Amino acid sequence: MTRLTLLCTFLIVQLFSFAQPVIDSADFMSTNDTARVSIAMDQNIDFTSTGPNSFWDYSYLEANSQRLEKAFDLSGAGFLVNVQFGPNAPLDYQSSYYRPFDGLPFDQLGQFLPVNISRVTKVNSDSLTLTGYIITVDGNDVAFRSDTIETGYQFPMNYQDSWSSRGYSNIDFNPFFNGIFIQYRQRQSVIDGHGTLETPFGLFNTLRVHHEIEEQDSLYVDISGFSQWIPINRTNHIYEWWSSDELRPVMQIQTEEINGNETVTEISYRDEYLGLDAGITDESIELSMYPNPAKTELTIETGSNIQRINIYNTSGEVVSSAEDINSTSTTISVNELSSGVYLVYTSTTQGLNISKLVVE
Q1: Range with lowest mean pLDDT among 47-61, 164-178, 189-203
Q2: In sequence order, which residues have a C-beta less than 8 Å from that of residue 33 and are 6 or more positions away?
Q3: Cis peptide before 114 (omega within 30 of 0)
Q4: pTM of this prediction?
Q5: Helices then strands (H, E): number in the chain?
């Protein structure tokens, strides 16, 4: 690093260090708000450095894909959803919006569970709470209130604030599917730093929030005579950098503890439109990928011919590939892959699907 670079970095830190932001409910999404987000991969990214007057330089990140995040109006989710979360629901469950959610571990039995999942959110002046889920099964929206409502954030948010919360949900898929999912989450959140964040999108004066979420879950399945309870216990960490008027974290790093170590599962940040999301989230692409987690082999089934499969590690490197498949089903070996999290890019005649894979 040159002397000029060091001087510029020092001046940037000094410029922003005197003005800690205070984050409140107005800095979060409201119904129909949208935010463009870029996704990057870097398993070696530093997510431990923090503290007062920090300078986080992530300007080197390169986007691999993008998505448009949106807070959807509950009125468009159907009658049953509005009974549970609309203006006539109990006060604690009268919610603000819902958003697609991929944090439930249903992908482990994805070939059996053709569902889409959304999380319902209530934004108050003093907190943001997670009131339940919307499960879409075969085009039908089914709403489930959380028996214990988890608090995601407490407002206003200031440096060194902390809070803890827990959530309990019991989701019964009957009559659509003979299965039950029980989720128990314990959250510990602390605002452990403030300072200047630099991303490819620009410079931001931020607060950093660290969420540690422990889950003790159980999934019951009964399919074609096979039935059992499957325990799913895991610990996830979410590192967020919040700035005023940005609607979502300007930067977020998600990790999962695997064999005692934190493995980065996603890096996302606010960005301008780069044209990287065309075809990536085409909901018409039907795909099942199992088993997940995998040890030796991975089977992928789709509703259209598979042309190519690439498996990327979290550094963005292709670690396995298969081409000229021309079939709706294929099995590939993952026996030589190290334990960890990967992204599977499946190109079909209908478009591109991107799915997360865990290798044990």
Answers
A1: 164-178
A2: 70, 71, 247
A3: no
A4: 0.73
A5: 2, 18
